Recover the amino acids of this structure.
């Protein structure tokens, strides 16, 4: 089989870039290892309303919930609520969302090969994507786009994953007493070191998940729902559905292009560093990838030409990724005691006002910049020794 572009992975980023390039008149083949787009899905499905608007994706039946507030539970278990009173994000049915993007790609002219797994690449001027499964044995192409998730085989085969870093996550669905318009976030080194746990209602069911920088995420999740003093009283742990695990990549820890190869979505590490949210960021960067690919395919899509993709991503998200990674480094090093002090700060009216005024669900850099300016004053309540320790990570990346 031949095509101008072979996209490996029929997740949101693959379908989005596939649609954009098929609309520009290129022959696009999307290869998806599962028999159905969107299944299995392990995702909380929280997407900012502003991000979807920016991507021109209209909310449809896949919206299962609307989030207006967040409640943070620090290790002290003294919750802090934060809200602007308006809908900030949707909770979506990932399978239905992914399928809509897949339908749009196919409608634009892309060919979708389901139950077909990419098992490797033969690199060269006409790269070959080696396949195993229901449809065909290989696709000869001009450009391979790896949209195959955080552990991307495309990235591995090309040698782009060498310095990649991940967080481990697990999630289940169950019944729980959580307000439909509220995301609950739980912090504590005993159950989610370096990350956090979440509870969010998605229709009748509640998604309960957790990320961690250490240990087994599934074990930690099962322990969290039994032992977290607040969450355990809300969750019906005897009724568990859709238990799954996944990885969240850290941005800027891998290269995203090579001769005749680009990476998009999680394969490229395009997620928000603090929350791990990758739907908006992945799709937004996939749009940039499509623009650069279309231009590069007027001739040979060499690494020299595809470098414009990385430049476009850095122009739009570079500062955000860098500041987010710095904030994450500080967060990962914080003891439970310091986390408690930080969340106590968030109870202060002036700090809440500052956060609410500068928070944007999909772009965290405005808030980061304001908080960085205020950091010495805000961190003072932690004591001089800690200010020095954390400032090192904040100001010297
Ligand atoms: C527990 C958890 C919760 C999350 N919650 C949120 C959230 O609330 N909001 C948010 O924005 N983000 C969230 N994310 C991140 C989000 O899920 C990802 O950023 C998003 O799915 C990335 O889309 P993608 O298309 O790049 O990759 P994926 O969605 O991973 O899609 C990759 C596709 O490639 C296919 N594939 C893989 N290998 C091959 C192969 N060799 N051959 C053929 N096909 C292949 C897979 O089957 C899959 O369909 C969460 C992640 C996790 C793990």
């Amino acid at each position: 089989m031949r095509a101008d572009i072979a996209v490996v992975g029929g997740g949101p980023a693959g379908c989005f870039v596939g649609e954009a390039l098929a609309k520009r008149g290129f022959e696009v083949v999307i290869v998806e290892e599962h028999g159905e787009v969107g299944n299995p899905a392990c995702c909380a499905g929280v997407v900012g309303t502003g991000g979807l608007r920016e991507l021109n994706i209209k909310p449809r039946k896949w919206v299962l919930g609307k989030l207006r507030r967040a409640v943070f539970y620090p290790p002290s278990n003294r919750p802090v609520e934060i809200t602007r009173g308006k809908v900030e994000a949707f909770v979506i049915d990932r399978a239905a969302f992914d399928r809509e993007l897949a339908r749009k790609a196919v409608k634009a002219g892309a060919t979708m090969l389901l139950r077909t797994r990419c098992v490797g690449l033969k690199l060269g001027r006409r790269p070959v994507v080696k396949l195993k499964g229901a449809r065909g044995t290989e696709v000869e192409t001009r450009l391979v786009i790896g949209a195959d998730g955080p552990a991307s085989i495309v990235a591995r085969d090309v040698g782009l994953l060498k310095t990649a870093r991940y967080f481990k996550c697990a999630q289940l669905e169950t019944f729980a007493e959580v307000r439909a318009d509220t995301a609950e976030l739980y912090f504590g080194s005993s159950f989610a070191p370096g990350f956090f746990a979440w509870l969010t209602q998605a229709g009748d069911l509640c998604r309960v998940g957790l990320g961690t920088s250490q240990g087994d995420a599934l074990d930690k999740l099962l322990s969290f729902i039994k032992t977290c003093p607040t969450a355990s009283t809300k969750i019906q742990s005897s009724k568990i559905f859709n238990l799954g695990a996944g990885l969240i990549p850290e941005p800027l820890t891998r290269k995203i292009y090579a001769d005749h190869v680009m990476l998009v979505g999680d394969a490229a590490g395009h997620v928000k560093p603090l929350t791990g949210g990758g739907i908006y960021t992945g799709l937004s960067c996939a749009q940039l990838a499509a623009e650069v690919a279309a231009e590069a395919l007027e001739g040979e899509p060499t690494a020299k030409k595809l470098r414009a993709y990385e430049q476009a991503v850095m122009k739009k998200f570079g500062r955000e990724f860098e500041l987010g990674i710095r904030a994450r480094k500080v967060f990962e090093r914080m003891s439970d005691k310091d986390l408690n002090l930080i969340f106590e700060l968030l109870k202060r009216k002036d700090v809440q006002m500052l956060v609410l005024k500068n928070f944007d669900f999909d772009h965290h850099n405005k808030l980061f910049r304001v908080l960085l300016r205020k950091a010495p004053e805000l961190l003072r309540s932690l004591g001089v020794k800690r200010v020095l320790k954390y400032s090192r990570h904040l100001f010297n990346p």
In short: The longest strand covers residues 138-146. The chain has a mean pLDDT of 94. The radius of gyration is 21 Å.
